Amino acid sequence: MRTRNIAAAIVLGVIGAVGVALPAYADHNGGAELYDPDIPNGCYAGAIMTGTPPVDIFTSTYTLVEKAGSLHLVCYFRVPAYVPASGEGTTGDWKGEWFAPTSPTVSRNAGTCLPPGVDAASELYRDDETRHVPHAEATIVAYRTSIVMYCSWPLSQLP
Questions:
Q1: What residue range is the signal peptide (predicted)?
Q2: What is the pLDDT of residue 91?
Q3: Average pLDDT over residues 97-101
């Protein structure tokens, strides 16, 4: 029960800070891939990102909020307490096996979070491949079997 409360507190803390009352998966980035039927659940974090297991993770538990001139994305992932190494020559193989952290850890992945509407594999907007794509920092908070990813983009940089 205590673990569940702490995980909930982490999620609520991140959401509170925001003010809330992939056949070609992208293994090197994260974001809200909301328009690709091949990517399950919508929000994803790639295996190569720091702070995540050595496999791509997906969730349908996310929120998008426009506040203070920015679009904020918060994704909540449930992951196993242990993920074996992905195998030599596979995505994330350099990470080795992953154990869920027993205390909260924070990882920052500069320029890895893509806004909604951007194809995860090509990193281009689906409706206009010439449009500039802003890449935001993905902040990953991991604790036990919970991972929260937070990204934010200035609205002035979005279509």
A1: 1-26
A2: 74
A3: 96
Residue 117 CB partners (closer than 8 Å, separation 6+):
34, 35, 125, 126, 127, 159
The arrangement of strands across the sheet holding 57-59 comes to 57-59, 43-45, 30-32, 105-114, 136-143, 146-154, 70-78, 62-67
- Give yes or no for residue 12 having a pLDDT over 80: no
Is-above-0.85 flag for pTM? no
Closest by CA position to 107, among listed 137, 146, 77: 137
pLDDT at 20: 33
Q: Are 151 and 64 in contact (CB under 8 A)?
A: no
Instruction: Name 12's Cβ contacts closer than 8 Å, sequence gap at least 6.
Output: none
Give the count of beta carbons closer than 10 Å to the beta carbon of residue 2.
Answer: 6
Q: What is the arithmetic mean of pLDDT over 30-48?
A: 79
Instruction: State whether the Cα torsion 6-52-103-99 is positive or negative.
Output: positive
